[in-house]
Amino acid sequence: MKNRFFYYQLLDEREEQLINKAGAESFTLFSGLVLLSYLVAVLAPALFNPTILLVSLFLGIFFFFNRARQFGVTYYSCFHFTIVGCLLVTLAITTLLMLQNYQFNIEIYQHNPLNVKYLSAWVITYLIYLPWVFIGNLGLKSYGEWAQKKFEQDMDELENGE
Questions:
Q1: Residue-wise pLDDT tens digits, 85-131
Q2: What is the tens place of the pLDDT at every residue in 18-68?
Q3: Exposed/middle/buried for 126, CB within 10 Å: 0-12, 13-18, 19+?
């Protein structure tokens, strides 16, 4: 069965294994930091700050890219969403935002999730974020095409150099 939500192309198997290794190590670091922040939240709630989770996410991402660079990874695989995937990603973003919107503005919506104001806010939020998701997807697609061309050029140079 073909995936209809995103397109993924592997450029180099060896580098894919190195990326997976860097990802596993950074996931371990991120999981440890989240567990530590959970323990702080349970044992000393006064010391817990929600930005700790955001900082641990950024540390995990930074560690991933740094570790991939240390392994010598130069090619990342081509990845971008299909149109249906972009619509679903936008729906996920809208859902997260609107659930928080309902929590903070429950009095305005009169404790009714079917309030016209709330439903129109769903539509407006979706329409605001849809072009940004498509622009981000175009960026992913163009980066993937650039990486594919660079990979092919480097492979041609290796063949011609030998």
A1: 999 999 999 999 998 888 888 888 888 888 888 889 999 999 999 99
A2: 888 999 999 999 999 999 999 998 998 888 888 888 899 999 999 998 998
A3: middle
Distance between CA 94 and CA 128 in Å, rounded? 9
Which of 11, 21, 153 minimizes the C-alpha distance to 78?
11
Residue with tokens 């973003």: 93
Q: Cβ neighbours of residue 113 under 8 Å, at least 6 residues apart?
A: 102
Looking up tokens 């940004």, which residue turns up? 132
> How large is the C-alpha radius of gyration of the chain?
21
b/e code 12-48 from CB counts within 10 Å (16+ = b): beebeebbeebeebbeebbeebeeebeeeeeeeeeeb
